[in-house]
Amino acid sequence: MASDVKLDRVSKSFGAFKAVDDVSLRVPAGSFVALLGPSGAGKSTVLRMIGGFELADTGSIHIGGRDVTDLPPYKRDVNTVFQSYALFPHMTVAENVAFGLRQDGVPREERRSRVRAVLEMVQLIDYAQRGPAQLSGGQQQRVALARALVKRPSVLLLDEPLAALDRKLRQQMQVELKLLQHDLGITFIFVTHDQEEALAMSDTIAVMRDGRVDQVGTPTELYDRPRTAFVAGFIGSQNFLAGRVESVGRLVADNGVIVEAANTRDVAAGSKGLAAVRPEYVALTAREPAGAGNKAEGRVVAVVMLGDALEYVLRLDNGDEIFARLARNAPERPQEGERVWARWAREHAALFPYEAVAARVQAIARPRPEGKSE
Questions:
Q1: Distance in angstroms (rounded) separating the CA atoms of residues 60 and 169
Q2: Which of helix, strand or coil describes residue 355?
Q3: Which of 34, 37, 32 lies closest to 231 in space, CA to CA?
Q4: 84 pLDDT more than 80
Q5: Mean pLDDT for the chain?
Q6: Do 119 and 151 form a contact (C-beta atoms < 8 A)?
């Protein structure tokens, strides 16, 4: 049976460093929740406190309605899969999976039956007698999963278990993990710094920074309705323009671009703000669009193919850059070196209170595109 997990005002410090600061979180039973954030955000510490590997300084943790705040790991109905799979090299796959059951004194026949069932579940029954060194990275990851699942925990904790895999295998394992969680129905809490991974796998995402939770929501909610500039920049890609808020829904950027936005987040007229628009909502055209706002002129300095889309880097005269993402069959596809206009609709722009961290978040969330220039 799956269990819910509740954290109430949990904090954890290491010396003078506060790794987790007053975090409250509700994880429904049977859900797939991702803790997402940059390195140092506190997400792994939260996971370790749920698992009992770290004890909270303040606050409480409940699993399945039971207070486990001060209990050691073996007294909590959870199991953990770490980034390093920590398989025993001298044991076979089957022996690795059976290890926890043997430690718990599970009878031999039941042990064999449960190991066989879980190896079939992760499609490794034919590898039962192989050693870890004879397996690929993806297969070792599945052995680590099987070892955790064979104990039938009500909550499975996963601390960046896909980080060591190459991109293609990581994407394949994302799908396998999601299907496995759906079939088992147990609670998964997954730590990652990869926003694409969180969007692809999770029912709910808790975005963390500096030891606190910035926003909790479904992938769609976080992508379409971020509450802060940090979340807007960390979930997906954003163009940020800093400037002065002239009136509600209107910002004059420092580079002179006027942004009119339908979505505002507690931004007062006369204050410093950040306008945001996602690259997929930016169109490029050779002619100047009508109206005074939501347009900028510049030169195309890079065109990068991203599979089914093209990412354009438009450099404005003051050196600022605007990114646009167009379908490969878009009617207007400028060439590198051309001067064009970027334009976007009011309903696709948002205004946030100014955050100095937003430019850094943008660089983390969307580095200069990798790929082959057209």
A1: 37
A2: coil
A3: 37
A4: no
A5: 89
A6: no
